[in-house]
């Protein structure tokens, strides 16, 4: 059997071959590896059905050959597009969505070989109980359920051997993706965007880095009544194995059948986590994929994946604050324009008046412009996709001059992912009032029941800092 660390050569394939392999992913798969069912297995502590052995990846060479064009950078792009659910043709969306669910698992022997090499013993020796059938598959690894020697139920994420080489190969294609974007946005400098993506994806390969991210969020949100981040078990983790407390909850598809009040509460928690982390923790968990959340009927959410985290400098968060203050709080468009130029989004000599700047950028702040309830709709989410990618329409000339600074690359996942989830939930709230609780420069008193429930946690956090 091929060793977990083996380094098979990455096959050289032309762009057409890579595209064809991704496009044919659904047809080649003998069955769907359903992420939603895997997440339900977390909740029910129920063993998965027997795996189809013909689909198992048994060696590192298998990983490179089969997953080299499904995983890594291209899969991240595909996943993001696949769960937008709005603003894309149905046939395109359905094809891309398969990148979320068609993930052949590693064989039992290959997964156990990775654990043995990383932790120094076989899973059956390290854990009181070990389920060899994975209960979830991610873009660079798969998750097994286990019980520690001292009786703690845990989730063990095991990285696919050889996936680092697959990502390295895919990053070359990612560069081509951003070159294509620069055709739509001639002002876009693809080099820093590609470098930002490279850094984030490289960090995702290091589970020790992910563990540090998860500890950061777990420490910050410990004691929060609605936001839960599972604890990391450091003694059972390494660079390619990550062990955390086992979490339970409902999958996103199940939430879509809940009452509107429950869906509103779930969305409020996602909103508080995302924007509160940016402005109170200077960090953003940049993968708002529905499979990364477990939901609870009271509005609570458990957050599972911290591989793609952007940590912001003080200068960057101060810049965000100045842009928000100018556009939303003071509605000072000339000052907002100056901040957009300072942030590197727009050239100083861009030949557009302030009204044109206001009309384009207002969309990205629209849901917090007024202090009143607003509902996220599919139309609003689709407008966000078009505002970024549509090269026609009123703003086509303006968008030709726009750039995306590295600090804003990951934040685009709010517009391209998180808001899409809110639209599917039909989420309604006074987002401005909640935002003013989260913005340090307003620090508003709670205006919702969830905010009031979280006030003791908020007070304790202020005392400790």
In short:
Helix content is 51%, strand content 9%. It contains 23 helices and twelve strands.
Note down, in words, how this protein is organized:
It is a single chain. The protein is an alpha+beta fold and 465 residues long. The chain folds into 2 domains: 15-219, no CATH class; 311-464, no CATH class. It is 51% helix and 9% strand. The protein has helices at 15-23, 25-28, 35-44, 60-67, 72-82, 90-101, 108-119, 123-126, 163-184, 190-204, 207-221, 252-255, 260-281, 314-329, 333-342, 354-361, 378-389, 396-399, 406-409, 412-425, 431-438, 449-453, 455-464, and strands spanning 127-130, 136-137, 141-148, 153-159, 227-228, 241-245, 283-285, 293-295, 301-303, 309-311, 374-375, 428-429. Strands 1, 2, 3, 4 and 6 form a 5-stranded antiparallel sheet that branches. It has a 3-stranded mixed sheet with strand order 5-9-8, with helices on one face. It has a two-stranded antiparallel sheet with strand order 7-10. A hairpin with a 5-residue loop joins β8 and β9. α5 (72-82) packs across α9 (163-184) and α14 (314-329) packs antiparallel against α15. The radius of gyration is 22 Å and the shape is globular. The model is unreliable at 1-52, 68-72, 78-89 and 91-102 (pLDDT under 50).
């Amino acid at each position: 059997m091929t060793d977990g660390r083996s380094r098979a050569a990455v096959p050289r394939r032309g762009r057409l071959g890579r595209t064809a392999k991704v496009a044919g992913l659904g047809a080649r798969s003998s069955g769907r590896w359903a992420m939603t069912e895997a997440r339900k297995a977390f909740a029910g502590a129920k063993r998965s059905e027997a795996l189809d052995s013909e689909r198992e990846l048994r060696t590192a060479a298998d990983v490179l050959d089969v997953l080299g064009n499904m995983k890594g950078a291209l899969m991240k792009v595909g996943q993001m597009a696949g769960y937008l659910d709005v603003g894309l043709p149905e046939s395109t969306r359905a094809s891309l969505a398969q990148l979320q669910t068609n993930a052949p698992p590693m064989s039992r022997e290959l997964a156990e070989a990775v654990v043995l090499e990383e932790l120094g013993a076989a899973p059956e020796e390290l854990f009181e109980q070990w389920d060899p059938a994975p209960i979830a598959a991610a873009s660079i690894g798969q998750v097994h359920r286990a019980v520690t020697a001292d009786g703690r139920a845990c989730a063990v994420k095991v990285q696919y051997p050889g996936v680092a080489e697959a990502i390295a190969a895919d990053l070359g294609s990612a560069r081509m993706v951003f070159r294509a974007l620069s055709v739509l946005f001639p002002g876009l400098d693809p080099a820093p965007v590609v470098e930002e993506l490279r850094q984030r994806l490289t960090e995702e390969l290091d589970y020790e880095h992910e563990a540090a991210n998860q500890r950061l969020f777990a420490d910050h949100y410990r004691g929060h009544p609605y936001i839960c981040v599972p604890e990391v078990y450091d003694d059972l983790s390494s660079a390619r194995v990550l062990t955390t407390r086992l979490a339970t909850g409902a999958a996103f598809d199940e939430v879509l059948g809940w009452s509107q009040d429950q869906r509103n509460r779930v969305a409020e928690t996602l909103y508080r986590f995302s924007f509160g982390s940016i402005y109170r923790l200077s960090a953003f968990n940049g993968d708002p994929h529905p499979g990364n959340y477990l939901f609870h009927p009271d509005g609570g959410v458990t957050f599972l994946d911290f591989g793609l985290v952007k940590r912001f400098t003080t200068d960057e968060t101060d810049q965000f604050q100045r842009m928000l203050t100018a556009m939303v709080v003071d509605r000072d468009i000339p000052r907002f324009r100056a901040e957009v130029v300072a942030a590197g989004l727009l050239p100083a000599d861009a030949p557009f008046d302030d009204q044109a700047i206001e009309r384009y950028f207002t969309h990205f702040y629209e849901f917090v412009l007024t202090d009143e309830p607003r509902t996220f709709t599919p139309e609003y989410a689709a407008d966000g996709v078009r505002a970024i990618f549509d090269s026609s329409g009123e703003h086509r000339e303006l968008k030709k001059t726009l750039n995306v600074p590295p600090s804003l690359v990951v934040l685009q996942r709010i517009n391209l992912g998180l808001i899409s989830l809110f639209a599917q939930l039909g989420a309604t709230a006074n987002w401005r009032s909640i935002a003013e609780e989260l913005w340090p420069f307003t620090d508003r008193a709670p205006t919702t029941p969830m905010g009031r429930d979280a006030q003791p946690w908020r007070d304790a956090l202020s005392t400790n800092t």
